[in-house]
Design a protein that fits this description.
By secondary structure, this protein is of the alpha+beta class. It contains six helices and four strands, in the order ααααββαββα. The protein has a four-stranded antiparallel sheet, sandwiched between helices. It is globular.
Length: about 220
């Protein structure tokens, strides 16, 4: 049998009848890491199970969370369009997702509900479908250690208290976990946020806590 050359990364996971003639604009500036992920067949990707997710969070290795290859491709296409239409991802987040007219907090961190919005992660990682991924957006800053890039002990304690108060009465302690991305991993730097993952939560609770939010991945073709 003749040897087949590997496909260019931008053709992997794309039906042959939809192959573009050249690399799409939204993939031309991909870094080596994203090229490697997008160039991997979905069939070779294994979704992370809950114990693995909790372990990565516990050891601050959230850099090991990745999207399913075809989902990362869609994410790159989506964000490319956002920058063209809104000028930046931040503008889209503030104006369309958060719909905050003012970014000035009413009070201290976690003092007022109006300074916080809970939404689904628009483009979740390649994890067990039973795991629901939320992003908690805040108008107030949550301090990081300038040397490590991780939360200071004070901000860590404040986030932890909020998460336990908000989710602890509806979800077992072993079925939720939170993390705050390192600064180097953040895709949106200008709006403070952290992440909460929940294993198999009640759908009614999720609808209530997110005010019926639907992630963009479910809306984007």
């Amino acid at each position: 049998m003749p040897h087949e050359e590997p496909l260019p990364f931008w053709l992997v996971n794309v039906p042959r009848d939809q192959w573009p003639a050249e690399c799409p604009d939204f993939l031309k500036e991909c870094g080596e890491k994203d090229r490697g992920i997008i160039g991997t067949p979905d069939s070779e990707y294994s979704a992370l199970h809950w114990d693995h997710v909790r372990h990565l969070i516990s050891i601050d290795r959230v850099d090991q969370f990745h999207r399913v290859p075809s989902e990362l491709r869609r994410y790159r296409q989506f964000t490319h369009r956002l920058v063209k239409e809104y000028g930046s991802i931040m503008n889209f987040i503030v104006n369309e997702r958060l719909r905050w007219k003012s970014m000035v907090p009413q009070g201290r961190p976690f003092e007022y509900d109006d300074d916080i919005k809970i939404l689904y992660n628009d483009w979740p990682y390649g994890i067990d479908p039973k795991i629901k991924h939320l992003v908690i957006w805040t108008k107030f800053e949550l301090d990081d250690d300038p040397e490590t890039g991780l939360s200071t002990p004070e901000s860590h304690a404040a986030i932890d208290a909020y998460v336990r108060k908000t989710f602890g009465s509806k979800v077992k302690a072993e079925n939720f976990a939170w993390f705050k991305n390192w600064k180097s991993l953040k895709s949106v730097h200008a709006v403070e946020h952290f992440h909460v993952m929940l294993y198999d939560p009640d759908p009614d609770f999720m609808g209530a806590i997110t005010d019926g939010d639907v992630p963009m991945t479910a809306k984007f073709p």
